[in-house]
Design a protein that fits this description.
Largest sheet: 3 strands, antiparallel
Strand content: 5-15%
Distance between the termini: 44 Å
Number of helices: 10
Radius of gyration: 19 Å
Structural class: alpha+beta
Length: 245
């Protein structure tokens, strides 16, 4: 059995922690001060930004995005207060990350690289979050033949033991991740119940529109792996939407 362990906390001195809280609080208050009519960034704009970031060279440095641990903040109530203000997004009662760090592809990639088990490739719902953003996933989905019992930041590690040749994988910063097309296949292969809960069809279509691949690309992947669970249903879905792309 393999147990996943969280990365060590980034320690700060009391003065540095207080400065961090002040900076986070100032940002949270500035967010609250925005006028109601201030337009939020559209999904299309965020998708375009993600696509542009994906085209950056390997030399492009991802932002310094990482998980904040309880020891990074002056007190246990500060995390809850900052989360309520919107300055951070809580993962559990002891961990969070700056809200601004999930606004970009490389920010999400850096965050996930600090959470996922080392040397593992993320896939399925977790990969879709990195590519598209949105609500943080309830599980950490990885490609592996191992089993993980420990939680990571309150999330269960969900293992997919599926074939993944090099052509199905890429990197975002230091994070190993399934390509958008392979991610779309993994999403389409989810159970009916989970697909409905996640709005999986919309997620797959958003991946296609953002990263400019077609149902035929996913059908080719499924053709090479006909014995994957739920493969017939996934094929019917891609056949159905092929007339829309």
């Amino acid at each position: 059995m393999t147990s996943a362990t969280a990365l060590p906390a980034v320690t700060t001195s009391g003065r540095a922690a207080a400065s961090l809280l002040h900076a986070l609080s100032s940002r949270a208050l500035s967010l609250q001060a925005l006028p109601p009519q201030a337009p939020a960034q559209s999904l299309q704009a965020q998708s375009s930004s993600a696509a542009a970031a994906a085209s950056m060279s390997r030399g492009g440095m991802p932002p310094n995005a990482r998980v904040l641990h309880g020891s990074d903040l002056p007190g246990p109530l500060s995390l809850h207060r900052l989360a309520h203000m919107g300055a951070v997004r809580r993962l559990d009662d002891s961990h969070a990350y700056l809200s601004e760090h999930d606004d970009t592809l490389y920010g999400r990639g850096a965050l996930m690289a600090s959470m996922a088990p080392r040397r593992m490739s993320v896939c399925a719902v977790t990969a879709a979050w990195v590519w598209l953003g949105g609500q943080f996933p309830k599980t950490i989905d990885i490609l592996s033949t191992s089993h993980f019992r420990s939680l990571i930041f309150g999330r269960k590690i969900r293992v997919f033991n599926r074939n993944a040749p090099a052509s199905h994988l890429t990197t975002v910063g230091s994070l190993r991740i399934t390509t958008p097309a392979r991610t779309a296949c993994d999403i389409a292969l989810l159970s009916d119940e989970e697909s409905a809960d996640l709005y999986a069809n919309e997620m797959v279509c958003s991946l296609m529109e953002t990263y400019e691949f077609r149902p035929a690309d996913c059908l080719a992947i499924l053709d090479e792996n006909r014995f994957w669970q739920n493969s017939p249903r996934a094929r019917r879905f891609f056949d159905l939407i092929s007339y829309c792309f």
